[in-house]
Amino acid sequence: MSRAVRLTVAASVAAIVALVIGMIAGGRAFPRIIPGLPDSGVVVRWGLPLSKLLMDAAGVVTVGLLLMAALLLPNDKGVLGKSALDYVKAASWAALVWAGSAFLAIVFGVAESIGRTVPQILERTILTSYATQTTQGVALTLVVLFGVAIALFSRGAITAGAAAGLLVFALVTLLPAPLTGHTSSSPNHDLATSSVSLHLLSLALWVGGLGVLALHALRKQPQLDVVATRFSRMALWCYAGVGLSGLFALVARLGAISDLWTSEYGLLALAKIVAFVLLGYVGYWHRQRTLADLRAGKPRAFTRLAGGETLLMFATVGVAVALSRTPPPEYSIPADRAFELLGFPLPPPLTLSGIFTMWWFDLFFAVVAAALAGLYGAGMVRLLRRGDRWSWGRTAAWYIGVALLVFSTQSGLARYAKVMFDIHMIEHMTLSMVVPIFLVLGGPVTLALRALKPASRRGDRGPREWITTILNSRFTKVVTHPLVATAIFVTSTYALYFTPLFESAMNEHLGHIWMTLHFLISGSLFFWVIIGVDPGPHRLPYVWRLLMLFVTMPFHAFFGIALMMMGGVIASGWYEQLGRTWGDTLLQTQRDGGAIAWGFGEIPTLLVLLAIAVQWYKDDDRQARRADRRADRTGAGDPELDSYNDYLARLNRADKGE
Ligand code: HEM
């Protein structure tokens, strides 16, 4: 048996043993007595967690293999080398196992939910209705479909771009299943959803990346030092992400800190925290010792430690699956529909001070804002340390944008936006028309291109090369085409509010995240084309930019008027369930929302006109200075000016009759 196979077997055994211990400790290894629901037997009791464990492990491994192929191994001008191609092929098999285990989880899930044995439920109609009509069933069906798609597409992937696309697809596939367990029933489900999503994304990159790196080392594959150094840089961020998101996921489920040692759920979570600390120590040891040895041509210590670390990580995944099967401690929450839907009690009547004092922690956008602020700051610091200059105006614009993003998603505005349509419209307009203006004026891509160093190996792609590849890609050319960017910006607003999409987005936290992200991204795309200071495939002359702005804004005004004239209430199901008894009627807040959408266009128009005027003036000024410099350097002036002067001289001579 090769060393790589031995590690795979040992990691599987570690994960299964940890799962079994976790299930016994959590009380889920024994039949549960639920009145009216027969026990579905030992096969289902163990089959379900084992299939979930296989699903988690296969998902994590697929991510790790694609990460290795796309980003960790050096490539040649975007074409994958032999090792990378092997990893993509292996990812195809891992994705197939992922899809298969999700299918098994559907079968066992049905059996458990109706208290039958597996042979009793192998009837097509029961399976189909579970897979298509229950939240858990739909989530698992998505994993089956996406897993098969990744398996098929991986067969033909030969470029780093294709592998990176598949990596993103695999990361998205990780999300649906865990979001339907305790997460959906957690009292603070917004925090639970965001934290578990971030937990899974960061842990898949970390655990999957390390597992595949350990196999790479055991198989004595080339470029181990490069791959290990790249992974180590990324691992620190993933480690922080796993720890923070894990703690938030826990806070969303526990009623009191004492639940940690008084409940089975808490004790299993404590076991994960201990494992997390140990893994941190191992990572520290790699940085202190083994990576340096590896670079010095002594890979033994690194390989051994990485193997041990992989075993501990997979054992922790086993504990995690047992944790997700263990009921969290019960605690009393207000029996109130509004609380259930919002994750917080219905706020009191709206006041201006309420907007500034009733802060609401939205983990997802807090992370987005922190990343935007941190990365920009890091880029600036690098330039300044190098002795380069960076515009303070751009910096101020960027941080105003980030501050407005924080205000829109974390202040009382975010709370009331869920309860009142007019406040939602203020939030929407700020996120799609004010925040993006400031962000694009910050010139983030220019800063990144100046701050990042080119890849150390010729033909390879580091972060800087990835940015230029994405900028020059066909996708970017299409979405930043002025017509496409305008169409996305305008039509999506109509599509959201005049179809059932808005109500669905309000009902689901993930839907709400997508909606908010969409406002931000579509606005940024549109304003990037008009006033962006970064290099882009389509930079329009200033007159065209003005035209684009003036053609687009009336569509927003029409949208506002259409809202004001509507007789029915949009997303009435959502708003009625909240049971708000104060303030205007639902129809009136919708009309006010329409008026806000209509009038709000003035603010961005003014800001954009100002930005275009400044850019135009600076551009003219820059061109004049460039012409002067050329004249000084070559003794020749601006060709247009020179020919005009010649023309005047000829006229002068003709007048004098020379
Ligand atoms: C500070 C340390 C950590 C804490 C507090 C923590 C907490 C949590 C919580 C509360 C959940 C949700 C469980 C549920 O659905 O009820 C979760 C899920 C999960 N955690 Fe962690 N975790 C930590 C570290 C880790 C580590 C180090 C790993 C792996 C190496 C890991 C792997 C997982 C996995 C795979 C899931 C999803 C399980 C599933 O639903 O199938 N966690 N974690």
Summarize this entry quickly:
By secondary structure, the protein is mainly alpha-helical. It has helices at residues 3-25, 42-72, 82-114, 118-121, 124-133, 135-155, 160-174, 182-185, 189-218, 224-253, 259-262, 264-295, 300-325, 337-342, 352-357, 363-385, 392-410, 412-417, 421-441, 444-451, 463-472, 474-479, 482-497, 501-507, 509-531, 542-565, 572-578, 586-600, 602-634, 639-655.
Furnish the topology, listing elements before pairings.
Layout: H1 3-25, H2 42-72, H3 82-114, H4 118-121, H5 124-133, H6 135-155, H7 160-174, H8 182-185, H9 189-218, H10 224-253, H11 259-262, H12 264-295, H13 300-325, H14 337-342, H15 352-357, H16 363-385, H17 392-410, H18 412-417, H19 421-441, H20 444-451, H21 463-472, H22 474-479, H23 482-497, H24 501-507, H25 509-531, H26 542-565, H27 572-578, H28 586-600, H29 602-634, H30 639-655
This protein binds protoporphyrin IX containing FE.
InterPro entries: Caa3_assmbl_CtaG-rel, CopC/D, Cu-R_CopD_dom
Keywords: Cell membrane, Membrane, Transmembrane, Transmembrane helix
Protein name: Putative copper resistance protein D
